[in-house]
Amino acid sequence: MNTLKVDVVVFGGGPAGTPLAMALSKAGQQVLLVEDGPGLGGTCLFHGCVPSKIFRESARVRAFVERAGEFGISGTDGIPTVDWNTVQGRKGAILSARAAGALQTANQIPLLKVLFGRARFSGPHNALVDGPDGQIEVQFDRAAIATGSVSNRLSVPGADTTGVLTSEEFIGIDYLPESLVVVGGGPIGVEMAQIFHMLGTSVTILEVLPDILQPIDRVLTRRLEETLLKSGIRVETGVRIHRIETTPVGPRVHFQKDGTDVSVGAQVVLSVVGRRPNVDNLGLETTKVAFDSHGIKVDEHLATAEPNIYAVGDVTGQPMFAHWATAQAQALASHLLGRKTEFPKREHNPAVIFSYPEIGTVGLTEEAARAAGLCVAVAEYNFATDARAQIAAEAQGLLRIVYRTDNGIVVGVHVLVEGAADLMGEAALAVRTGARISDIMNTIHPHPTLTESFGVAARQAVNMQLAAAMAGGGTK
Asked: Torsion over CA of 417, 422, 426 and 427, rounded to 10 degrees?
């Protein structure tokens, strides 16, 4: 058996492991990066963020073609058809190019070795890697576990029947289903439901909780649910799934709603009932690394109970976002290199749900802020009056900036509008830096853009405060 000695071994080449390995090796550490998938990129590239957004772009284009007449464009009579092979082929080309680019970048770093295979610990300073050329023993000073997460599976009778797919399996589907039942009304479920409905599929969403997209801002999610219903998507919340039946035309989901037994059938059932940290078969029992169903337990510096082993990204539990994993990885690399480091905080992490229209969120919702005992107000902006949104014919949505009434500090920003994803940089910066509502008001925003919604909402809020103070006999 060949033996390899390195300073650091990284398990997993996704959004956490790859930037961590690159940063350490560029700083002079001898690093081995082990990836058990088809290439560098992890779930985000191959099964999640990127491929689903490729599907969404095809759906968006189809929707725009249908609406071309609104923009004065003719010659597009009839409903546009979808060539699913072309959609999947485009997805494959983008994924391959991105994975190849990541590997090429990694291979240009002299102290970084990338090995494709399955790694498992055999002790606190040893690992075994089963690769294409056999088994290799790795001796290391430090290790980082960045193995990501995997989909939970439904735990009801019939969940393993033909036609019931997880999100990873669904991404590779080789046909466009005529009908689809989505079990799970979280971000992935809502995104997939809208994407495939826009591509022409009949869609039903089944959600166990009373509302979809909990715990996102209720005002925004209820608006989005209205959009889903108006578009023709069936949404059933507060359901209890009993079983899935195999029928000649596809699976049928049996559930209870308001005490009544109901069933709905489809060509495909998409199960999106959460994700769990990927800790299986890592040999953690040969170390002191502790974990439970929520992930590997780490301290504020991402260190495990084994002093020289760290964990980063989805494998440590919620939140499970590629950008969060990368932020953690960059902080961990800095920390391991002995630099003074500020690790990212969950309350500063922005999230985007690529629904239609998109939802962006960072910080506390109004409900969460009040539950925490904060006195807050909400500055709102209706995109129905927004020039840029009107120009794009996407003038539905709402911006909500949650700020403290005692000092004006912004504690949360939540927005529903097509293009919300591109607003979250300013939103995250405002929350992280403790910007005041007056700071946003006094920042010049270009016109006509969606970003000027921040300035308008902030100015209206400040003016209302001033008016209330004047009415009360004083100024603030």
From this structure: 40
Instruction: Give the span between the Cα atoms of 254 and 262, in whole angstroms.
Output: 6
pLDDT for residue 302:
98
Catalytic residue, chosen from 294, 323, 414, 447, is 447
Q: pTM of the predicted model, to two decimals?
A: 0.93
**Residue 335 falls in the annotated catalytic set:** no
pLDDT band at 285 (very low <50, low <70, confident <90, very high): very high
